[in-house]
């Protein structure tokens, strides 16, 4: 296997992007990444694009070729492939790009992620997201993603004494981080009271426990590590790529409070990087709901099972804590354009490791981790990055 580095990153603003089409969003993120990497179209061997449900959200499938075309590369006939794994589509696209370079097949790959979710009404968006759940045994009976994660939250509270205040503290922290991120959907701090008293969505999860519905795109340029410094001075190496899967339906799991796909993907990644959870200096984790961040820091091995709520309460995961989590604002505040999220997480980790995260900068970070989940945990990717 060859080593792989990230040499360019690009993001669009996340939010309700009424004035930008699906193709414009991904072309904007992609061109920023390509400019950042100092490359041109002729350098690109392949493109991988994560998008969960462009067919339902904007009526557009055939996204691989569309993105190459919208980027102005149709005449180069670059192999361009769409990758789908629900909200983990972006993480999977990163992994496909990574594997294609590690294998020796490609030297330079552009990875993108994009979703435009606000062009449809709220109910249709909720139904579209629910296509990532088990249609026969979950969605058919009316369950939605807030409902599924609410069940995880209730069980976590019952098993481990996790409190609604601890869930709210995740939201407060992530909004505080998002307020510092110029690309975030919600650049505003919230108080604990606001989080605790927000409109109920699916008990115990209120509005401020949920990630929003978001338009946005992200892109990175991956390059064989041995060639990375030909293009930029400060590449960031991907030192591990892990992936796991699990039952589609939540009720079929061994334990609904543990995402075994995360456990599996992270063990795979720690083994490849020859690291332990205590080596990680910062993490972007998949906080689609506040309870998901608490489960993630447990399942990634940062704290013991059941101690995630306490860790948040003890401020371990704040920007100046011992393990900053979701410095970007996370899905909660930065926003969650589902197919773009896994790529945007890599963008944040790269900016942190290069010392380019401005007001969100974590000092002296060497290893950063990105954790991307599809559905209620049936797909997971974990990537670990290191400044070169
Ligand atoms: N966090 C913070 N504020 C939010 C928000 C969120 N998640 N969602 C909406 N808002 C704000 C809006 O900006 C708006 O504010 P304004 O009145 O100042 O403009 C207000 O709340 C109402 O927004 P609206 O779009 O009408 O909310 P909604 O009730 O239609 O949707 C949710 C709220 C929580 C149901 C929706 O965001 C949702 O479905 N989130 C989950 C998405 C999801 O499941 N993703 C996949 C995860 S696996």
**Distance between the terminal alpha carbons, to the nearest Å?**
18 Å
Question: What structural class is derived from the secondary structure elements?
Answer: alpha/beta
What fraction strand?
15-25%
Radius of gyration: 19 Å
- Spatial arrangement of strands, main beta sheet: 3-2-4-7-1-8-11-10-9
Query: How many beta-strand elements?
Result: 11
The main sheet comes to:
9 strands, mixed
Mean pLDDT: 98
**Strand/helix succession:** EHEHHEHEHHHHEEEHEHEHHHHEE
Low-confidence stretches: none
User: Ligands in the structure?
Assistant: coenzyme A
Level of helix content?
Answer: 25-40%
Overall shape: globular
Number of discrete helical segments: 14
Q: Briefly, what is this?
A:
With about 400 residues, the protein is α/β, with parallel strands linked by helices. The chain contains 14 helices and eleven strands.
Short descriptors:
388 residues; binds coenzyme A; single chain; alpha/beta; two-stranded antiparallel ribbon; nine-stranded mixed sheet; globular; 18% strand
Give structural notes.
The protein is 36% helix and 18% strand. With 388 residues, the chain is an alpha/beta fold. The strands form two sheets. Strands 3-2-4-7-1-8-11-10-9 form a nine-stranded mixed sheet, with helices on both faces. Strands 5-6 form a two-stranded antiparallel sheet. Coenzyme A is lined by residues 87, 122, 126, 129, 145-146, 186, 201, 207-208, 210-213, 288, 336.
Question: How would you summarize the topology of this molecule?
Answer:
Elements: E1 4-11, H1 22-36, E2 46-50, H2 54-58, H3 63-70, E3 80-83, H4 89-102, E4 108-116, H5 122-129, H6 145-160, H7 164-178, H8 192-196, E5 200-202, E6 205-206, E7 215-224, H9 225-228, E8 236-245, H10 260-273, E9 282-284, H11 290-299, H12 308-313, H13 330-334, H14 338-353, E10 367-374, E11 379-387
Parallel strand pairs: 2-3, 2-4, 9-10
Antiparallel strand pairs: 1-7, 1-8, 4-7, 5-6, 8-11, 10-11
Bound molecules: coenzyme A.
């Amino acid at each position: 296997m060859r080593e792989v580095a990230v040499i360019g990153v690009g993001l669009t603003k996340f939010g309700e992007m009424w004035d930008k089409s699906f193709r414009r969003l991904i072309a904007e993120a992609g061109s920023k990444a390509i400019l950042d990497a100092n490359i041109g179209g002729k350098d690109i061997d392949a493109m991988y694009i994560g998008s969960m449900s462009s067919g339902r959200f904007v009526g557009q499938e055939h996204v691989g070729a569309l993105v190459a075309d919208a980027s102005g590369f149709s005449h180069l006939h670059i192999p361009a492939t769409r990758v789908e794994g629900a909200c983990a589509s972006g993480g999977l696209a990163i992994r496909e790009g990574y594997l294609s370079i590690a294998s020796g097949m490609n030297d330079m790959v552009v990875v993108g992620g994009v979703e435009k979710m606000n062009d449809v009404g709220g109910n249709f968006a909720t139904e579209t997201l629910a296509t990532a759940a088990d249609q026969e045994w979950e969605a058919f009976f009316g369950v939605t993603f807030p409902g599924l994660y609410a069940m995880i939250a209730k069980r976590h509270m019952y098993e481990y004494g996790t409190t609604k205040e601890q869930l709210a503290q995740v939201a407060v922290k992530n909004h505080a981080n998002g307020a510092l991120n110029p690309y975030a959907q919600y650049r505003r701090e919230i108080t604990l009271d606001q989080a605790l008293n927000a409109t109920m969505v699916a008990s115990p999860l209120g509005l401020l426990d949920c990630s929003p519905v978001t338009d946005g795109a992200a892109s990175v340029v991956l390059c064989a590590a041995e060639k990375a410094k030909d293009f930029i001075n400060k590449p960031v190496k991907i030192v591990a790529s892990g992936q796991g899967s699990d039952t589609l339906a939540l009720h079929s799991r061994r334990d609904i409070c543990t995402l075994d796909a995360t456990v599996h993907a992270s063990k795979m990644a720690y083994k490849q990087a020859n690291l332990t959870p205590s080596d990680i200096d910062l993490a972007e984790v998949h906080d689609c709901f506040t309870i998901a961040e608490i489960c993630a820091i447990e399942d990634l091995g940062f704290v013991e099972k059941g101690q995630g709520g306490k860790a948040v309460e003890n401020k371990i995961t704040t920007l100046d804590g011992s393990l900053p989590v979701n410095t970007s604002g996370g899905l909660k505040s930065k926003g969650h354009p589902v197919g773009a999220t896994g790529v945007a997480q890599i963008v944040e980790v790269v900016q942190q490791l290069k010392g380019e995260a401005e007001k969100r900068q974590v000092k002296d970070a060497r290893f950063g981790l990105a954790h991307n989940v599809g559905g209620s945990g049936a797909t997971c990717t974990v990537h670990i990055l290191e400044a070169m």
